[in-house]
Every structure is written in structure tokens, then in C-alpha cells.
TrEMBL record:
Protein name: GNAT family N-acetyltransferase
PANTHER family the record matches: GNAT-FAMILY ACETYLTRANSFERASE, SPERMIDINE N(1)-ACETYLTRANSFERASE
Molecular function (Gene Ontology), one example: acyltransferase activity, transferring groups other than amino-acyl groups
Species of the source: Actinocatenispora rupis
Origin: domain of life: Bacteria
Domain N-acetyltransferase: 9-184
Cited InterPro entries: Acyl_CoA_acyltransferase (IPR016181), GNAT_dom (IPR000182)
Length: 194
């Protein structure tokens, strides 16, 4: 896919030479606290084993690196929701919705809370709703990850279902909110921030 651009922010396809940056982010305890878990830091070898297959053209997951003025700052991936473990019907999603899922993190914690994460998600939603033809996009956020939920709500996601103990994170079964955005709410959110 082409690089997505919003001013100085770009989302571009991940490359093998991003793996070292990914390993730096995914071994930072501050990032791992919310994405992956501090008990599962990733080495360059781990990152290569996990993400190299996702660079293939036929990969079910598309991986993007976020850059601010050409400097890598974060990661976002998307996939058809039917490839996700959670049954689409649980969320009331039908194949007619052509539902997609996404996961995101900003790799530099000093940038958290600056609006970057919600801009990244908004830019990707524009692609999924506009180009890919998704009618709904879903994601999961740990129930105590208030910052992430707020960032998602700002771009049109709403909490649909609380799944108890959905994710084992740092050895604890954590409740997760499943959140959904649809084309309509995305458009309204865009109007709201104009
Ligand atoms: C989640 C993440 C991508 C969001 O990106 P971000 O740049 O921090 O998000 P934004 O600045 O756009 O929005 C965050 C919002 O949460 C608010 N917030 C921050 N801490 C909060 C808290 N403890 N409780 C409630 N809201 C909080 C911020 O004030 C901001 O809202 P506002 O713009 O209305 O003031 C980023 O914080 C991140 O990478 N976190 C670590 C990894 C992670 O949690 N990934 C998501 C897994 S589901």
C-alpha cells in the first residue's frame, strides 16, 4: 500500500530495517507495560521471527511504521477482523461490514498524550474506510488502559463489550474492552475536530 500522509505524520509500510527500532521499542518497559507485557521483552531475533513473515505481500496483517518528519515514532497494524481470534458475531459485526481490526503503539513514551496516537489511528481509519472499503473497524484495549480508550474515543470508537479476563498480560488475566468505529462515527469525529 502507499504511504499515508497527514502533514508531518506519515504511516508507511514496515521494512526489515525497522526491526532494530521495533526491538528497541518492544524492550522498553514503559511500552511493554501496555503492549506485550514486561515479562515478554523482544530482542532483534524475536522481532525478526514475528514480523518478517508479515512483510510478505500475502500476509493477513499489514504493518506500518509511523514517522514524524521522517523519524520513526510508532507502529500500527491492521487485518481483516475474521483473522482475529474473537468471533465477529460477538461484536455484532457481519461480513457485510467488511470489518477490520487494528493494534497501535507510540514507541516513544515522551510523545504519549500529545495527540499523536489518535492522529495515527484517524489516518489509518481514513484508509480502511475510504480505500479498503471497511464499514467497521474493531480493536481491544485492556480495561485499565484509560489513555488508549480515550485516544480511540476521540476518533470515533465506542466501547461495545467488556470481555472478562480476555488477555493474559504480565501473568494476569485482564479484562478487555472491545471497541468499534463505523464509517458514520468516523465522519462525525472528523467534523468534531475540524
Ligand atoms: C495508546 C496510545 C497509542 C495513544 O496515543 P497518544 O498519543 O497517547 O494518544 P492521544 O494523546 O491522542 O490521546 C490520549 C488521551 O488520553 C488522555 N489520557 C492520558 N492519560 C489518561 C488517563 N490515565 N486516564 C484518562 N485519560 C488519559 C489524554 O489526556 C488524551 O486525551 P485528551 O486529548 O482529551 O486530553 C499511546 O498512549 C501508547 O502507545 N500507549 C502505550 C501502548 C498502548 O497502550 N497501546 C494501545 C494498546 S490497546
Amino acid at each position: 500500500m502507499d504511504t499515508l500522509v497527514d502533514g508531518e505524520l506519515a504511516l508507511r509500510p514496515m521494512r526489515a530495517d525497522d526491526f532494530a527500532t521495533m526491538a528497541r521499542w518492544l524492550s522498553d518497559p514503559r511500552v511493554l507495560t501496555w503492549f506485550g507485557g514486561r515479562d515478554r521483552p523482544m530482542s532483534l531475533l524475536d522481532v525478526t521471527a514475528k514480523y518478517q513473515p508479515r512483510l510478505a505481500a500475502d500476509s493477513a496483517t499489514t504493518c506500518l511504521i509511523a514517522e514524524l518528519d521522517g523519524v520513526p515514532v510508532g507502529y500500527v497494524q491492521f487485518y481483516r477482523w475474521r483473522d482475529h481470534a474473537t468471533d465477529a458475531s460477538v461484536l455484532g459485526l457481519s461480513t457485510l461490514d467488511n470489518p477490520y481490526g487494528l493494534d497501535v503503539f507510540v514507541g516513544r513514551p515522551e510523545l504519549w498524550g500529545t495527540g499523536l496516537g489518535s492522529r495515527m489511528v484517524r489516518l489509518l481509519l481514513g484508509h480502511l474506510f475510504g480505500t479498503v472499503g471497511a464499514r467497521r473497524v474493531a480493536l481491544a484495549a485492556m480495561a485499565h488502559n484509560y489513555r488508549a480508550q480515550r485516544a480511540y474515543a476521540k476518533v470515533g470508537f465506542r466501547r461495545v463489550r467488556l470481555v472478562p479476563g480476555a488477555e493474559v498480560h504480565e501473568g494476569v488475566a485482564r479484562d478487555e474492552w472491545l471497541m468499534v468505529a463505523d464509517r458514520g462515527s468516523y465522519s462525525r469525529a472528523e467534523v468534531g475536530t475540524a
